[in-house]
Amino acid sequence: MQINNVIRKTKLKKTQRVGRGGKRGKTSGRGTKGQLARSGRKLRPELRDIIKKLPKLRGRGRNFLKSREKTNIAINVGTLNEVFQNGDTVSIETLVAKKIITTKKSTFSPIKILGEGEISKKLTVVGCRVSASAKEKIEKAGGSIK
Predict the structure, then answer these.
(1) Measured between alpha carbons, how far is 102 from 95 in angstroms, rounded to an integer?
(2) 4 phi, psi to nearest 5 deg
(3) CA angle 13, 15, 16 (to 5 degrees)
(4) How many distinct helices (H) and strands (E) make up the chain?
(5) Tens digit of each residue's pLDDT (9 = 90 or more) over 18-58
(6) CA dihedral for 13, 18, 20, 22, sign (positive or negative)
(7) DSSP states of 79-103 as a string?
């Protein structure tokens, strides 16, 4: 066996070394001076600067994102009276089907039925929050809340 017949068992790792002369010349394509020309060049993250400019919410347990707070989706009794028929069931699925609310909103926020307007139809409300005045009007019309 001779040296030219020896077969390598592992592959060679090809590492590219920057800034060692070669075809690129003096600065090896890095320009001249400054942060980007140095070894281990790392730009400072811009997002950190943006975050540092935002004001802190002072007080214990206050530093939560406002967008994550769940707010109720308000639907008035008058709207239910216009859209639903006598004896129908009001739930999240039926409200999405009737296009009163969108699915994106309903998955993140609870639905609350408010007492603005008049109702004359007998409706059954399932899986929704109901205000005191709306509950009174729905029960007065012969409906129920589950």
Answers:
(1) 8
(2) -80, -10
(3) 155
(4) 5, 6
(5) 566 666 667 777 777 888 778 777 777 888 888 888 877 77
(6) positive
(7) HHHHHSPTT-EE-HHHHHHTTSS-H
Give the phi and the psi of residue 130 in degrees, each rounded to 5: -135, 135
5 phi and psi angles, rounded to 5 deg: -95, -5
Domains by residue range for the chain, with CATH: 70-145 (3.100.10.10)
Give me the pLDDT at residue 48, please: 83
- With residue 76 as reference, give the H or E element that holds it: strand 73-76
**DSSP letter, residue 72:** P
CB-based contact 145:138 (threshold 8 Å): yes
Q: How far apart are CA 15 and CA 12, in angstroms?
A: 9
Nearest to 18 by CA among 5, 34, 37, 1: 37
Residue pLDDT, tens place only, 55-104:
777 766 665 555 455 678 899 999 999 999 999 999 988 998 998 888 77
- Structure tokens given for 3: 């040296």
And the tokens for 138? Answer: 């729905």
